[in-house]
């Protein structure tokens, strides 16, 4: 049994986990059978291990018993051990998360710190294939897509699971052959949690009623993993057909997208990495032009022929007071200011974008400044009656979110005079027969 178990885990590590035998491994050690087996098997296979134990103080004396056990075990095995004490209730209150999520967040945050501190290549956790079946069912009961039915990955970022190839019974049998003891978490025997009810009640009933069900379920997980790989590859091909990157933006062609029968799911798969949920993606397909959707990290704008996805950019509240008596302004952008006297003004002297002109009345303004766009900004552009929202101008110009928020605006006494580089306003218009005026140009 001992050699067979070791060979099975060794082969799985080599094929699926990618652990470098020359670099240290951090082992998450609770003291239970699974984590003790993980530490012992990695040591047997010649890996340089360092252990980490979390004491969440949730089970009174039992939590302290676990800490004493792992301390003594590591001393006997000659393994360096890090122990961390956590105040879980405080974290739950501060972050508004469940007990399970609090423990997970605290645990993995600390593991990442230890990886950096000790130069370990990865953190090894002791999930086995029984855990994988439980995860399969829990995800199915929550409502999931293909990815949720693939179970846990052997390698996920810095986390590796070398025991996914063996079962709980394999682990217990192997520990017994080593005469290795371990501790038992009494809460695992209680059926108040969903996973425990699944583990202690539902799955044993399935296994007793359907011969070979466990092996069949593991085969199903493998099949779903392959299906998900094919699905992801197909989505990648379709993503390239319907979308393109322009700078920081992802532009999705609405006409091509609408040609797919499963357009909602396709859009969701494209935008899921940017934080958008399925409901938002579904709404995007029927929303009016001009509507916006936001995730934690990105913004989606519905345009006439496309959906444009951009990273959220914080609006810069930079304001620079400028003096029009200066000939050159260097901050935040370079402007050249000319005071013209005795030369009749001609419209050919300006282009309304990079070179603009204002009557001398602008020199009487109490405050002239440069700033960025703000929501609700309006101006009165040349050649148009009334006013226009700057956001509408930006839409006409097909500005990205980043361009909107990086464009500079010239303002005098609260009136927008110039969207610098793009459009001037009719405020302080130079009379046609004037020979005294101000010309400003941008570099």
General description of the model:
By secondary structure, the protein is an alpha+beta fold. The protein has 3 domains: 2-215, 3-Layer(aba) Sandwich (Rossmann fold); 247-311, no CATH class; 319-442, 3-Layer(bba) Sandwich (Phenylalanyl-tRNA Synthetase, Chain B, domain 3). Helices cover 40% and strands 21% of the residues. It is built from 14 helices and 22 strands. It has helices at residues 2-17, 33-44, 61-77, 88-95, 99-118, 129-142, 168-178, 194-209, 213-242, 254-258, 263-271, 278-284, 390-396, 401-406, and strands at residues 25-28, 49-55, 80-85, 123-124, 155-156, 159-160, 243-246, 249-253, 292-294, 298-302, 306-311, 319-322, 328-329, 335-341, 355-359, 368-372, 378-379, 388-389, 408-412, 415-419, 423-424, 436-442. The strands form 5 sheets. A 6-stranded mixed β-sheet has the order 3-2-1-4-6-5. Helix 4 packs across helix 5, helix 6 (129-142) crosses helix 9 and helix 11 (263-271) crosses helix 12 (278-284). The radius of gyration is 32 Å and the shape is elongated.
Describe what is shown at a glance:
40% of the residues lie in helices and 21% in strands.
Secondary structure topology:
Blueprint: H1 2-17, E1 25-28, H2 33-44, E2 49-55, H3 61-77, E3 80-85, H4 88-95, H5 99-118, E4 123-124, H6 129-142, E5 155-156, E6 159-160, H7 168-178, H8 194-209, H9 213-242, E7 243-246, E8 249-253, H10 254-258, H11 263-271, H12 278-284, E9 292-294, E10 298-302, E11 306-311, E12 319-322, E13 328-329, E14 335-341, E15 355-359, E16 368-372, E17 378-379, E18 388-389, H13 390-396, H14 401-406, E19 408-412, E20 415-419, E21 423-424, E22 436-442
Parallel strand pairs: 1-2, 1-4, 2-3, 4-6
Antiparallel strand pairs: 5-6, 7-8, 8-11, 9-10, 10-11, 12-16, 13-14, 14-22, 15-22, 16-19, 17-18, 19-20, 20-21
């Amino acid at each position: 049994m001992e050699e067979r178990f070791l060979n099975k885990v060794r082969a799985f590590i080599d094929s699926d986990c990618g652990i470098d035998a020359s670099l240290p491994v951090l082992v998450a050690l609770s003291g239970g059978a699974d984590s003790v087996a993980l530490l012992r098997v990695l040591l047997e296979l010649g890996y340089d291990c360092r252990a980490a134990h979390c004491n969440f103080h949730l089970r009174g004396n039992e939590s302290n018993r676990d800490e004493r056990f792992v301390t003594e075990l590591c001393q006997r095995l000659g393994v360096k051990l890090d122990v961390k004490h956590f105040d879980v209730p405080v974290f739950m209150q501060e972050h508004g998360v469940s007990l399970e999520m609090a423990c997970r967040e605290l645990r993995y945050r600390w593991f990442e710190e230890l990886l950096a501190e000790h130069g370990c290549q990865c953190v090894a956790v002791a999930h086995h294939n029984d855990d994988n079946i439980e995860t399969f069912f829990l995800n199915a009961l929550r409502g999931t897509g293909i990815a949720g039915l693939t179970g846990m990955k052997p390698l996920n970022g810095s986390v590796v699971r070398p025991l996914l190839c063996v079962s709980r019974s394999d682990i217990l049998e192997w520990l017994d052959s080593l005469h290795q003891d371990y501790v038992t978490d009494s809460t695992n025997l209680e059926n108040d949690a969903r996973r425990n009810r699944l583990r202690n009640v539902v799955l044993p009933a399935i296994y007793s009623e359907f011969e070979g069900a466990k092996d069949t379920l593991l085969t199903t997980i493998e099949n779903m993993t392959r299906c998900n790989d094919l699905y992801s590859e197909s989505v990648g091909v379709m993503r390239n057909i319907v979308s393109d990157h322009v700078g920081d933006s992802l532009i999705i062609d609405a006409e091509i997208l609408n040609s797919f029968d499963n357009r909602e799911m396709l859009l969701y798969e494209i935008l899921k990495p940017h934080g958008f949920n399925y409901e938002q993606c579904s709404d995007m397909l029927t929303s009016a032009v001009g509507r916006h959707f936001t995730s934690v990290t990105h913004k989606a704008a519905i345009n006439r022929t496309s959906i444009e996805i951009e990273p959220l950019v914080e609006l810069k509240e930079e304001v620079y007071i400028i003096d029009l008596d200066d000939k050159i302004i260097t901050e935040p952008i370079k402007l050249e200011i000319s005071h013209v006297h005795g030369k009749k003004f001609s419209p050919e002297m300006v282009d309304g974008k990079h070179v603009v002109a204002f009557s001398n009345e602008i020199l009487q303004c109490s405050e002239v400044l440069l700033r960025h766009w703000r929501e609700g900004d309006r101006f009165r552009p040349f050649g148009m009656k009334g006013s226009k929202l700057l956001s509408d101008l930006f839409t006409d110009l097909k500005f990205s979110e980043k361009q909107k928020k990086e464009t500079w605006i010239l303002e005098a006494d609260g009136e927008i005079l110039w969207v610098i580089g793009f459009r001037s306003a009719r405020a302080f218009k130079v009379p046609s027969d004037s020979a005294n005026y101000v010309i400003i140009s941008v570099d």
